[in-house]
């Protein structure tokens, strides 16, 4: 199989680099300065076992590849807000032997949140969800770091909306030979909803800094509790924190990497790169949406959604809202709901 990594940033670059390092055929899809750096210098992947440069085909559009191969696997790793654009572009790509990518090829959604698979199923016939536990960073063009050890990450894979098949098992086998654990899960959505709850802290970290200290961790606990209440009201099952810890164990310890500063999560990275967009609408915004559908107030998640969107639009640096100010805004948001 050939892997086409649509969005070779932190997650896509780490997965693509590790697959290439174990001998698999990989194409990276990127744009702008990142694409130029990949073409000129290759992908520089820094991991605990060293720094590797992978000189791989790098493209912006499927036209540059000609007809896609029947054994191609498309792995979508763009932020969710860019999903529709990527699907329109790659879904119509012709495949050798007849048909289009949307008709013939599997699409794996290795993204935060839960909405991308639903968007993808409107276009692609064969969609797979991937629950991504993979601490990775992409801040500079052409470079990606992944600090996890002994495993680079754990990637649960399953058909969307449910089930498994031979493609999922074949991809999992390739990943497991490439420094990942890749359980094939018929109930992958349970894992993805659990990851959604964990990702509700991304916006908090992005606007107010690391989740350190009693006040920050207590606020995140309140944000996550809102999310859990919403999922329960919606009847959406999610893996417990205890089950997650049992699976992860000590398989992914984040180690310091020489010359690589310790950064934050995906939303923090978006603000650091001044990307102009952020995925919060599909994280905290997903909880706000479900809350409105099922009559559950979500003032804290709505607040974080608004703040993170504003930070991205104004290209404000991450962590520039003092935590005491955020705590005051959080208390005001909760109080305003109680008064209604």
Automatic annotation (TrEMBL):
Residues 4-160 form the Ketopantoate reductase N-terminal domain. Residues 187-308 form the Ketopantoate reductase C-terminal domain. Gene3D superfamilies: N-(1-d-carboxylethyl)-l-norvaline Dehydrogenase, domain 2, NAD(P)-binding Rossmann-like Domain. SUPFAM superfamilies: 6-phosphogluconate dehydrogenase C-terminal domain-like (SSF48179), NAD(P)-binding Rossmann-fold domains (SSF51735). Pfam families: ApbA, ApbA_C. Keywords: NADP, Oxidoreductase, Pantothenate biosynthesis. It is an enzyme of class 1 (oxidoreductase). Pathway: Cofactor biosynthesis; (R)-pantothenate biosynthesis; (R)-pantoate from 3-methyl-2-oxobutanoate: step 2/2. One of its GO terms (molecular function) is 2-dehydropantoate 2-reductase activity. It comes from the Bacteria. It catalyses: (R)-pantoate + NADP(+) = 2-dehydropantoate + NADPH + H(+). InterPro entries: 6-PGluconate_DH-like_C_sf, 6PGD_dom2, ApbA, Ketopantoate_reductase, KPA_reductase, KPR_N, NAD(P)-bd_dom_sf. Its EC number is 1.1.1.169. PANTHER family: 2-DEHYDROPANTOATE 2-REDUCTASE (PTHR43765:SF2), 2-DEHYDROPANTOATE 2-REDUCTASE-RELATED (PTHR43765). Catalyzes the NADPH-dependent reduction of ketopantoate into pantoic acid. Belongs to the ketopantoate reductase family. This is 2-dehydropantoate 2-reductase. It comes from Streptomyces hintoniae.
